[in-house]
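Figure-free illustration: sequence to structure, shown twice.
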Amino acid sequence: MSDIHVDGGALVRRAGHEVLRVEPWGPDSLRVRAGLHRLRDDLPGALTDPVPSTAEASATEGTGVIVNGDLRAVLDERGLLRFERVSDGVELLAEERAHFWWPGPRLFLANGDGSHRLEQRFRAHADERLYGLGQHTHGRLDQKGLVIDLEQRNAEVNIPFLVSSRGYGLLWNNPAIGRVELAGNGTRWVADSARQIDYWVSAGTPAAVLGRYADATGHPPELPEWASGFWQSKLRYRTQEELLEVAREYRRRGLPLSVIVADFFHWTALGDWRFDPAEWPDPAAMVRELDEMGVRLMVSVWPSVSPLSENYREMADRGLLVGTKQGLPFHAPWDDKGFPTELPVAFYDPTNPEARRFVWETVKRNYYDIGVRVWWLDACEPEIRPGHPGNLDYHAGPGLEVGCSYPVEHARGFYEGMRSAGETEIVSLCRSAWAGSQRWGAALWSGDIAATWESLATQVRAGLNVAMSGIPWWTTDIGGFHGGDVTDPGYRELIVRWFQYGAFCPLFRLHGDRDPRTPLGAEMTGGPNEVWSFGEEAYGHITEVLRLRERIRPYVMAQMRTAHETGVPPMRPLFVDFPSDGHAWRVDDQFLLGRDVLVAPVLTPDTTARSVYLPEGAEWTDAWTGTRHAGGGTVVAEAPLSRIPVFLRAGADVPIAPPEAAGA
């Protein structure tokens, strides 16, 4: 027996110990929560207060219905929820029992500490395509058929939000460690340890769903204009003078440069969060000189705290570090300065507001007050070794229950700190993210990736899934991170192609640990990684790409304003703008930058032409030749090493080709 009733506009079901609540949460959207005995409002999640909407709920004889805009949820007598599109009655998503007797669509298995292993099951559809879920290295755009771990790792970013070709989006509103299984016989979301089931569903086209998701989890800020330029980085500039000389050389050559990076080991000890005066004797003067050149300094800030740090004892005594359930409170080995071998280091706890304030106040005193305004929040998964999140104990709860939220809380601390200092232009480059990271000014990059053609192809799909996960600011290490011989002709070709792709990414950034690589430690520095490092031919092509990016920056900024206002990311799969084109849902090696620019990167060596699909519903013009094509078909586009195929929607005026070559 069950009781289904309406409570304050929400649909509520009580059956035995289970309580289920379905309530409106923004236009065309519903939030579903289920727990044992009661529901809690104090658990961590990504949802913000809902945008007001008009919804109607009703309950009769053991069943219930709630309608919010174009989304209807029907709750049957067995406690199964079915989500339908109101306009045509099509089923979008439906809960499904695992077995006719037990378990049902929702499973609670007690862990013995008040938490449960939770499972939520939905019906599978063979023709369904699924996108989003953060950033992964599996190389797929459509993730139907895959099992995705819901855990943060370097280059594996868990954002538990997906968009379906059936016309809905779903957020698993739970930062617990777990997985999602997108199988042929059903979809199953699993949390290894949590207190209640919590998910959010929205109906609409992909663009509409992305907009509703931004409403529900936070819109990104407007990207500052300077951030749309070129970012120079390598592993690593060891001294103040070395970094300055690179910036000066860009200026001497007349090349555009917006950001240059002081990478790790610039500090005295991990967790001091300040420059080592032996290598950076006057960082304030460095920042002033860079400012005069129109260049921002970005500083690498890690969440790790060495026992050698001047801050360690105070942070430990005040409970600002992540705890452990067993063993000493250290979470990874590290080769820190002033120590002859690896030593264990801790991580600060960003789920603790007091810890966030302590880190920001230290960062402000040592970096911000000398003029630094851009933050590189590296290793913010956090990168624990061994990877035992269940042993961690956070201010917000046990590691298995809240561990995936670390990167979003870390970015939040810097956002709130910058706002408290009166800043409005806030960008933090992060190696990990979770649902809602976008509202804290988080820019995501794809982590420590290989310097190979296969890796470049993977980045295209990974970046598009990040876009479908609600993160509009994204970039890669142009050229890959791990390796790359700057004297090798094959690698030179790869980095030219990567630059050409990178110019159309939301953020345009060079980084990498080039050959000859050296062991991890305070003296390490990668090989040369400036745009003039790859030989004269490559340099000529790369500088043309830099100029291309400068030409399209006004267009890029217009797309960033759209992302801020609507939640639709600047870089996106073709189907976001052409949802009625069935073929557009299958294209995974092209993308749109805004509505008017279609980009087809070259992803294989020795390639001078490639096939390009032009979506149905628009006419397209080859940006290099001016040739016009009807949409809805495939063309073969020329792709000499000097360019990749780019097409403009008919009527668009975006200066892809240099003025002297336009229409040639």
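We now fold a second protein in the same way, so the two outputs can be compared directly.
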Amino acid sequence: MTTAEPATVDTALTKLVGERTAKALAGHLDLHTAGDLMYHFPRRYDERGEHTDIRSLDVGEQVTVLAQVQRTAVRPMRQRRGNLLEVTVGDNSGGTLTLTFFGNQAWRERELRPGRWGLFAGKVTEFRGKRQLNGPEYVLLGEGGEGEAAASEEVEEFAGALIPVYPAAAAVPTWVIARCVRVVLDTVAPPDDPLPASLRAERKLVGIGTALREIHRPSSKEELYRARRRLKWDEAFAVQLTLVQRKLRAASWPAKPRPAKAGGLLDAFDARLPYELTPGQRDVGVEIAADLTTPHPMHRLLQGEVGSGKTVVALRAMLQVVDAGGQAALLAPTEVLAAQHHRGMLDLLGPLAQAGELGAVEDATRVELVTGSLGAAARRRALAEVAQGRAGIVLGTHALLYEGVDFADLGLVVVDEQHRFGVEQRDALRAKADQPPHVLVMTATPIPRTVAMTVYGDLETSTLSQLPQGRSPIASHVVPAAEKPAFLDRAWRRVREEVSAGHQAYVVCPRIGEGPAAEEEPPREDDNGRRPPLAVTEVAPLLAEGPLQGLRIGVLHGRLPADEKDAVMRSFADGDLDVLVATTVVEVGVNVPNATVMIVLDADRFGVSQLHQLRGRVGRGSAPGLCLLVSEAAEGSSARERLDAVASTTDGFKLAELDLEQRREGDVLGATQSGRRSHLRLLSLRRDADLIRDARAEAVALVDQDPELERHPALAASVATLVDEERAEYLEKG
């Protein structure tokens, strides 16, 4: 590179660190430019003399540990000529790890002498009960050594008190990344600071150059904290600016108002409803009705506890749109749920949904079900009803998105269980309207406020917290099958007692099973020696021949043909089956008020929100519900603690916070759905709630003054980098 071409954040790494190293960084870590490397932040920081908790390492994990050599031993190899060097390293936690090196390497024995500290990287394996790293990469700290891994320029990286440990690959260990980062920081001028100086001063944020240098080579813990706070702010601010801009643009889109109609279908429906709406349902109904009346598209998130009555709220909104001459579509994640919505709405609407039939009321509409399993003739008839506008309410799965499903006047899209759908699917349904339709997104998974602010910050949010009258409490208990097998025997007896009392039960398994219906290859034991998860097709016959012998048992899972799934679900709903052995296909929406007990087998294999959703299938009638979480997880393990937490509360918001603690936040932020590199990597939705709230306030104020950030071009460019094009599109559509 000539002096006329100073290095910038866009400079290719090949020009800075050499072609071979740059190729490894690109191929293994997707790092191509100086800017990419600047934003490849350390995963953690070690301190010389402090332990890195070797005892917590998992077999199969690719790790980098800071440890001290304790002793070395050389012994001849049994199977071939040569010697084996075994080096025991440890930390202050008392944990030890064996490093094994094959071949005659006397120089390595001299280098790895007791007392030396180093960073050791490799894959954790286990041999005769001892954890080890075979032939690990390493760099020694402090005094120079004889091996090339201890080259002086690499050792220099770790001279400070805080040692950065980077997300790395076997071919590109952390110290190679650190060396390359040093080259970039010493060569490349930091980017222009995108944040307005007044905002930096008000929020006491360090400059971007200082932040980038200190996060890689911290001079103290205090400076590292300030650097991380500034870079987290940039991430939160970029997301909030994107969401606030999106909300502002959406408010300017035209949409057809759908005002309420006195004496219409909605009034008739309210009059025939066999129960009173809860105050929460009425309040949310007023909010939605007002949104539908405006000339701009509603974009509202309706969240509520399992069984809080979201479907009735959505149906009332759909009827308001039908009264105004439009159509409403509800997108459900499974055919089982779509079919159940169809049956439930026909029951609730009665003659209001029988247009063209004897006994229908004046102005009645039709409710059509469109799924992939419809026969050709039934499909043609249903599609004609939809296209000609005779079907005011259309229910279906992703089959609604296919070409050939045309609406006469789509005015409202209701998305049930939002987290089950990809962004593109929701957007495809919206695109079927001439103008942007109103959108109501529903979820029974309570969303922590920080997540709502960060992921759904462009949606107005309504919450149903009350349960309708007649809903019964659900008791939950953990059944420790390994420690107390008698408890599991008692659980099956409890199922028989409930059936004898005229009730029904669910048994939920994590897997379908082997054979033609299997979703996957037969699983083997995992790296920790755990048996495969229990499967529906294996458990059902064991129950029928054993503890539940004589009871009417049905099987339900996602690989059954659609008509068979529907028949099984109908049989269970009609009381023709006593026990339903199922996968999580029953997780959402399934409503059988007579089901009072659920046994979840291998409950530790499910997530917190999944377990909360599942247990919501019982206690939906007047009899109390019981959920038994069966697990072999040891007492005191994190899996067992998670189950104990689920059993201890039915507060979905508390459980959502717990779920957020345990999940990778990248999933929550949509990183796995965007499928591309993102610079959002420091922000913690759980720990940084106050910072996210402050960033939201600043974003609202700035966008009010400068909607397209025309007066802040550097900030606009920074937002485009941090929230890349595909992620912006994700937020835009979501």
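Summary for the second example: Residues 221-252 form the longest helix (32 residues).
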